[in-house]
Amino acid sequence: MITFTVNGNKHEFSGDPSTPVLWYLRDELNLTGPKFGCGMAQCGACTVHIDGVAQRSCVMPVSTVQGKEITTIEGLSENGDHPVQKAWVEHKVPQCGFCQCGQIMQAASLLSTNPTPSDEEIVQNMSGNICRCGTYPRIHKAIKSASKSMTGSAGVGYFDPSQAGEEA
């Protein structure tokens, strides 16, 4: 029996230990935030936090989460008011929305370890999350905004999206 916590609730898994965490979250717990995108940990749509760190759940076997805490977008904030979620709404980041849960989880993980990332650090950290709609300038601006709201400062090298060809 593999035991772990998802969004604050204990769970036990007795199935095939090689089952990807993503399938358990979606098929057994009906959590639809993490998405199946590529199945190779290349797109980031399946991103969740494992013990607070952004991880790709599509390639992570359930056997590796024994005793760990998994947080999905559904558990990031009970009321959807995490600073990153609020910044996403404020800056109208999503277009189709498919990748956005993974993008938000990746950004929240970044800001939890680096509350004032530079533009280069944001680009580097977010580079494994693909947005087919190309909302990268808005994603970047939202991360800077969330950083500012979390720390009370603009951080290092505040990003100006107008210089990237995206209207504010």
UniProtKB/TrEMBL annotation:
Where on the tree of life does the source sit, at the highest rank? Bacteria
Which organism does this record belong to? Alteromonas gracilis
Name used for this protein in its record = (2Fe-2S)-binding protein
Write down the PROSITE patterns for this protein, in alphabetical order: 2FE2S_FER_1 (PS00197), 2FE2S_FER_2 (PS51085)
Q: Where is the 2Fe-2S ferredoxin-type domain?
A: 1-76
Pfam families membership: Fer2, Fer2_2
InterPro entries tied to this protein: 2Fe-2S-bd, 2Fe-2S-bd_dom_sf, 2Fe-2S_ferredoxin-like_sf, 2Fe-2S_ferredoxin-type, 2Fe2S_fd_BS, Beta-grasp_dom_sf, Diverse_Oxidoreductases
The protein's UniProt keywords, in alphabetical order, are:
2Fe-2S, Iron, Iron-sulfur, Metal-binding, Oxidoreductase, Ubiquinone
